[in-house]
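Reviewers of the previous submission asked for a worked example of the structure-prediction workflow described in the proposal, so we include one complete record here. The input consisted solely of the amino acid sequence. No template or homolog information was supplied to the procedure at any stage.
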Amino acid sequence: MSAPSETELSELTNLIRQWSKSLGFADVGFSDLQLAHHKPAFEQWLEAGYHGTMSFLERNGELRFQPELLHPNTVSIISVRMDYLPHDARFASDLDDPAQAYISRYAVGRDYHKVMRKRLKQLADKIQHYCGDHFGEPSDGRPFVDSAPVLERPVAEKAGLGWVGKHSLLLNNDAGSWFFLGELMINLPLPVNEIRAVNQCGDCVACLKICPTNAIVKPYVVDANRCISYLTIEHDGAIDQELRPLIGNRIYGCDDCQLICPWNRQAEPTDEPDYQHRPVWQHHDLVTLMSWDETTFLNNTAGSPIRRIGYERWQRNIAIALGNGPSSEAALAILKQQRGHVSELVDEHIDWALAQLQQPPAPSRKTARLVRAIRTGLPRDAD
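From that input alone, the workflow returned the following structure tokens.
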């Protein structure tokens, strides 16, 4: 490949922005590979054991801080943002009704890994063909979507897409935090973004205070062992009994720190069809979901990120939610019916739920406060 001039690279970045928009990405930025300064904080986080059972985070450490080792010849990284907040999000109603399941808003549509990887591959193809036509040789790019040791949030921050908030998620002035991130590592010295977003969290600690399990141990540090998203998605064993009542009706993920964040009042729902509510998640009472056999679970979660937790964790999570909900004949009957059908792990949580339903707990003060905040603070249909 003949070395393109600065002017030619600048023209290419403008084209990349246009192509990215046409592919459904809400924003795009360009980063260099200098990430070594993030290593001490990451290692301290690991040493504290805040990664829980996610042992994969202990491996391939050098690749996180030297992207050129992950994809040889990488010179720069294209970082993209894709908004996912669905229309009719119904935050408050799902949290306020303990008989209904709460599913993180990112998971009510199609699996974002599939959507974004396909779009990034299309972007890589466009760049490759352009370089072949204009520079005499195709470019070499590799897309990543939460699928390799990539520091996606620090990269996105360097690329000018936002700043890392106190809940450890990336925040953007226009979109809050309701978006996915993806990366395209490429062998082109693209002009990097010189303007960085200013951290605008200020003195706000709403996300720390609202977390049901106090998983945000201090600003910018999350203990996965207590995080409901980790517990319901990544963790494959028994969930500590002290944490079960705090999970409430959240059966897949948790959005509380995002729901309370003032910056998310700026976010607009996406028109991306792949991220809208699937019909199966429009009405999801816990008793019905618990009654699914494994075949029904697999059929209803085809193409959904929920499928990856598997049937056992699905049953475990719903058992906890039922135990936190109102005592009813239907709830007691389905728990007893499902006992002995999946595994000892599920039975343990079913037994706990049955015991809980003898004296159903009142909704936690944090959940009630969050619901009130959503209803009064978010300018969209929350009910």
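The chain has two domains: 6-87+109-186, 206-377. We consider this example representative of the routine output the project will generate in years two and three.
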